[in-house]
Specification:
By secondary structure, this protein is an alpha+beta fold. Helix content is 28%, strand content 17%.
């Protein structure tokens, strides 16, 4: 995230294959053609490059920005023309992500406890099928890229058991909380995993907590030369819906608890 292996997954006839990247398998993990591990968020090759409870870099967004910009960015670019008011524009982008993606665990959709999709894979499914499935990091990555395409500053926030998007929207009055990032106020939480959530609703359990926040830059990451590995096909189906905490976020929650315990002992 090298034994060459073909991954065979029995899925319903309606299953779709993700074909926008060339996946391969190494050490039990699935990697794409940017050499990013899709099945693990932690470490240098993890899709979020998580090193601690607040230190991370959501590198997977670079697969859909800059020179890699494709469907998700293009969808974002359509909103300024239709919604010149920036507050309304931000709300419409949020509603698109919230309403077009149905929350589904990676285990139900892919058969892996963790499998991150990039923004263009989710956007392609929405454009081709009318809707897509994903979990919290999929929502966050999609919204962060769409907001960049629409001319906003965006960020990804990492909480003990969750991740979400942020959008820089100073003066927005509908949020239950606004955040300051590096001393700069005006950041609004974009929590799209609930079907009725409005833009700016921040879950109470994260208010006052130490959070990791990474502002997204409109920069691409460079694809590497295709590895000399046998490609595999990752298949997906809709699966069942419902909130599931992935093993990665369970570990992250434990890291937060341990850090709190250490601070209390000092």
């Amino acid at each position: 995230m090298f034994s060459a292996a073909i991954l065979l997954v029995i899925m319903p006839a309606s299953a779709l294959a993700i074909s926008s990247t060339n996946f391969y398998k190494e050490g039990g993990e699935i990697y794409d053609d940017w050499d990013i591990c899709r099945t693990n968020a932690a470490g240098e090759d993890g899709f979020f490059q998580v090193y601690s409870e607040t230190e991370f870099c959501p590198i997977i967004v670079g697969e859909s920005l800059g020179g890699n910009a494709d469907r998700a960015y293009r969808i974002g670019q359509q909103f300024p023309t239709d919604y010149p008011d920036i507050h309304q524009r931000a709300e419409k982008i949020f509603a698109f992500g919230r309403d077009k993606v149905r929350y589904t665990s990676d285990a139900d959709q892919f058969g892996f406890q963790e499998f991150a999709q990039n923004a263009d894979e989710v956007a392609a499914t929405i454009e081709d099928e009318g809707s897509a499935y994903g979990d919290c990091e999929d929502y966050a990555v999609l919204l962060a890229v769409m907001y960049k395409g629409a001319g906003f500053r965006s960020a990804i926030v990492l909480a003990p058991d969750h991740t979400a998007a942020l959008v820089y929207l100073p003066g927005y009055k509908k949020a239950n909380r606004t955040l300051s990032v590096n001393g700069e106020p005006g950041w609004v939480w974009a929590e799209a995993t609930g079907g009725n959530n409005p833009l700016g609703w921040m879950p109470e359990r994260y208010i006052g907590k130490e959070l990791g926040i990474y502002e997204v830059e409109d920069e691409a990451i460079t694809a590497v030369e295709p590895p000399d590995k046998t490609p595999i096909t990752v298949t997906k189906s809709g699966g069942s819906t419902g909130i599931h905490i992935s093993p990665f976020f369970s570990v992250l929650a434990m890291m937060w608890l341990l850090s709190l315990f250490r601070r209390r002992r000092r």
